[in-house]
Automatic annotation (TrEMBL):
Transmembrane segments: none
Record-given protein name: DUF2087 domain-containing protein
Record organism: Blastococcus jejuensis
InterPro entries: DUF2087, WH-like_DNA-bd_sf, WH_DNA-bd_sf
SUPFAM superfamilies per UniProt: Winged helix' DNA-binding domain
Alphabetical list of Pfam families matching this protein: DUF2087
Domain DUF2087 span(s) in chain numbering: 105-171
Length: 178
């Protein structure tokens, strides 16, 4: 059973409640109805669908959840997932970036200075060399990465990657892709 099938089965609120009740120790249709607040008829219909899919074993009124199928589906999905593209050609930088950047967003600002510099050098690439940016635009560009735009702005200026004068910023450091 694959993860998509499990998610599809649990997308129905009644089936989700049945699985939750079984995971919490219910063993019969009546137990599930009592724990979930569902009508017996709704529990029976959901249990029948879950049993046909192989997520629940049903023997009359007795139900048993095949909880091991969740883990197996998760492992199979993880193995089938494509390897993410490296964020840097340098393996050490890529390791740092992979720890802090997920799906094009900064999950947290590194506390360690060396790691923070690696992240900031990656982030500053959104600013074009030679272009002047008002603070509002800098905030908008940084908000795509992380909600704490003030901290990112300050760190970029402190590291000499951006320069600020009279509320206008420009790129003044970091590598430039050519």
């Amino acid at each position: 059973m694959d993860a998509a099938t499990i998610v599809g089965l649990l997308a129905d609120p009644a089936r989700l409640k049945v699985v939750a009740a079984l995971a919490l120790g219910a063993g019969t249709i009546e137990d599930v109805a009592r724990l979930s607040g569902l009508a017996l008829k709704d529990v029976a219909l959901a249990a029948r669908r879950l049993a046909r899919a192989g997520l629940v074993h049903r023997d009359g009124h007795v139900l048993q959840l095949h909880a091991d199928r969740f883990g197996a589906a998760a492992r199979a999905a993880a193995e089938a997932a494509p390897t993410p593209e490296p964020l840097s050609a340098d393996p050490a930088e890529d390791a740092v970036l992979s720890a802090f950047v997920r799906d094009g967003r900064l999950v947290s600002i590194p506390a360690q200075h060396g790691k923070r510099v690696v992240v900031l050098q990656h982030l500053v690439r959104v600013f074009e060399p030679g272009v002047r940016y008002p603070e509002r635009e800098v905030n908008a560009l940084l908000a795509v990465w992380h909600p704490d735009v003030a901290a990112l702005r300050r760190y970029l200026v402190d590291e000499g990657l951006l320069t600020r004068e009279a509320g206008v910023y420009w790129r003044s450091g970091g590598w430039v892709d050519v």
